[in-house]
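I'd like us to work through together how a protein chain folds, taking it slowly. To get us started, please write out a protein record for me. Label the sequence line and the structure token line clearly, so we can match residues to local backbone shapes. Once you have written the record down, we can walk along the chain together.
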Amino acid sequence: MPKKELALNTPLNNAPLNSVIKLIIPMSVGGQRLDIALQQMLPAHSRSRLQAWIKAGFVTLNQVSATPKTKVWGGEQVDITPQANPQEQAFLPENIALSIVYEDDTILVINKPAGLVVHPAAGNWSGTLLNALLHHVPQLSDVPRAGIVHRLDKDTSGLLVVAKTLEAQTSLVRQLQARTVKREYRAIVWGQLWRNGTINQPIGRHSHARTKMAISRTGKPAITHYEVLERFGVHTYLRCQLETGRTHQIRVHMQFLKAPMLGDPVYGIGNIIPHKHMTQTLRDAVSDFDRQALHAVKLGLIHPKTNEFMEWQIELAEDMKVLLEAMRHEDPPTEDEGEGFDFGYQDGDYYEGEADDDDFDDFDDETLDDQELEGD
């Protein structure tokens, strides 16, 4: 369908999508960057959105492609093809397959695959678990956040519970806050751990990298219990149990323990891989593993309607099974050899920062609080 052209200076706010809007740059904004000039002309649209349109070629200046930094002097013609705001698609149902472990009229337990984002956010406004839930259970559109009460990081796989009613959501959130929900994970980390233990270290926002978390004296209490299941040449297979549910909790705690998660792009060891301590088979298996080795294997809670305790357990994710098989063919370590390679974190990952009230809750197993439960 050909694009419809509208008259010069047609209000953009009322323009249909894929219609070409023609504007004349006024002399009053002469000498400014194109993106800044357009923001003044079109205050209903954010500068970042206008920049995105310019970069994608949906804005031309005198019928020529431009950049956000292009200077305008007044009198130029600007052609704009409005695009849908991706946020407007964030809460629409999408036919995305779900692996359902349990379902009744009150709750839904999902086995989330790695790679699936739980809740829409910047960079992932569609294709999320929330979109899938709205397709599978249309009535979830009446429940805040489509019944989601806790999260798993995009690249963490495993069990996650969803409330199908507002009453069930309230019950589950209160159980999470009371720390009565049982959550057990399997993790593969770098290095050898020789004893079971508990990490009781508060977690808060990183002082410099705002999308990262770190151990912080002003952070929220965070407790992770871990148990050694198997030891390999340069890896350890762990059972982890959460007592709290902070953002990236297990990943940050493992980094603090100097046993960072295998495959973790944020808290892992980066390119410092001890190749000489690994066979070629294991090197290939580690290289092919493209996510953090963390899987939520068990979930237990009080059913919101029957008040009975229910528990679900699933198998380890297939990609982690393959990884473990490669490790089991390595020579087992002795305790004296366990100190041979230092997987410690970099300076600055432990910090003493200022309190931050803007809680970042879009990642691994962060509980929604009462205010969030009530909706925006």
Remarks:
- Helices lie at 34-41, 47-55, 129-136, 166-177, 249-256, 280-288, 318-327, 370-373.
- The longest helix spans residues 166-177.
- The chain has eight helices and 19 strands.
- The first strand starts at residue 5 and ends at 8.
